[in-house]
Amino acid sequence: MAVDIRFPLLQVVGYQNCGKTTLVEKIVKRGTEQGVKIATIKHHGHQSSLESLQLEKDSSRHFKAGASATIVEGGGSLQLEAKTSGWTLEKLIQLYAFFENDMILIEGFKKEDYPKIILIRKDEDIELLTSLTNIVAVISWIPIQCKFPLFHIKDEESYLRWIFSEVNQ
Q: The domain 9-45+86-167 is classified under which CATH number: 3.40.50.300, 3.40.50.150, 3.90.1700.10, 3.20.20.370?
């Protein structure tokens, strides 16, 4: 199913413990400082289900009673919890189309074909550069050579500047 995208999407991918969440946090923080509204989608790569957002609240009680979805709105916030057998990345992106975003950051979902930054922590991770599609940049912990824009993990200012110059095109 094609998704009507009205805002930039950027994936942050790599193997476990390579710094994906930290990088997403840095991008969101910088974007927020610049007035960019960023929504995030994170892939929960485990087989276990997610814990309820607020275990002791009424919405959690509704969900435990069998509601297929609950939404709580108040104080300028909205929380959604829903059960489904098919939360594809495309459906999550469509859901975010209802919100006022300037950008969506996706953590994980390696095999999807959106523009992605690959994090390389060790030599074994380099295979991602040939096995994944739509790579726009690489951030590496180790010295490597590649055909994509390449940044060292400690060169935060350079890769954040690059990300926001690319997003704003």
A: 3.40.50.300
